[in-house]
Amino acid sequence: MSVLNCASGWKSSLNAWELKGGDPKPYRDYVDAIAVGPKIDVTDVSTSMTVIRTWLKSPSGGVHWLLATCKFVVVLLISLDPEPRVGAC
């Protein structure tokens, strides 16, 4: 489920809560902040490079994709081995 779908559901819940007399203002601000996401000025080169470097060093970003790619290449190389060594008759 995407963030936008969740935000839509949260907004519906907040509307219902408001009809019952609750004050959903702080929660609306939170939902609006996460639904839009961070705003990044891509015309500024230094900001763009900082964002790229941060993503590359992040465990869920570049590091994850590097490890996944390495695993893929290893599996690919093993599967292309012309003379299988394990279980061969």
Structure description:
The structure is a single chain. The protein is elongated. The protein has helices at about 5-20, 25-35, 45-55, 60-80. It is mainly alpha-helical and about 90 residues long. The chain contains four helices and no strands. Helix 1 (about 5-20) packs antiparallel against helix 2.
Keywords:
89 residues; mainly alpha; 67% helix; 4 helices
- The share of residues in helices is 55-70%
Portion of residues in beta strands equals: under 5%
Q: How many β-strands, per DSSP?
A: 0
Determine the oligomeric state from the structure.
Answer: single chain
Roughly how many Å is the radius of gyration?
Answer: 23 Å
SSE arrangement, N to C: HHHH
Report the average pLDDT across residues.
82
The gross shape turns out to be: elongated
Taking the sheet with the most strands, its summary is: none
Task: Provide the low-confidence segments as ranges.
Answer: none
Number of helices: 4
Class derived from helix and strand content = mainly alpha
Q: What is the straight-line distance between the termini?
A: 48 Å
